[in-house]
Amino acid sequence: MTSPTPTHPAQFASSDAAAPASDHSLLAPPEIDSDAAAIETPALVLDLNAAMRNIRRLQHAANKAGVKLRPHAKAHKCPDIARLQLAEGAVGICCQKVSEAIPFVAAGVRDIHISNEIVGPQKVRQLADLALHARMSVCVDHVSQIDALAMSTDAVSAHLGVFIEIDIGQHRCGVATLNEAVALAKHIAAFPQLEFRGLQAYHGGMQHKRGFDERKEMAAQAASRAAEIAQGLRDAGYPCETITGGGTGSAEFDFASGVFTEIQAGSYVFMDADYASNDYVGELHFEHSLFIAASVMSVAVQDQVVLDAGLKSMSVDSGLPWIWENAQRSTSFTYTAANDEHGIVRRVDHSGSTDDATSGELAPFPSLGAQVMLVPGHCDPTFNVYNRLVVIEQERVAHVWPIAARGMSW
Amino acid sequence: MTSPTPTHPAQFASSDAAAPASDHSLLAPPEIDSDAAAIETPALVLDLNAAMRNIRRLQHAANKAGVKLRPHAKAHKCPDIARLQLAEGAVGICCQKVSEAIPFVAAGVRDIHISNEIVGPQKVRQLADLALHARMSVCVDHVSQIDALAMSTDAVSAHLGVFIEIDIGQHRCGVATLNEAVALAKHIAAFPQLEFRGLQAYHGGMQHKRGFDERKEMAAQAASRAAEIAQGLRDAGYPCETITGGGTGSAEFDFASGVFTEIQAGSYVFMDADYASNDYVGELHFEHSLFIAASVMSVAVQDQVVLDAGLKSMSVDSGLPWIWENAQRSTSFTYTAANDEHGIVRRVDHSGSTDDATSGELAPFPSLGAQVMLVPGHCDPTFNVYNRLVVIEQERVAHVWPIAARGMSW
Question: Nearest CA to A181 among A229, A225, A145?
Answer without folding.
Answer: A229
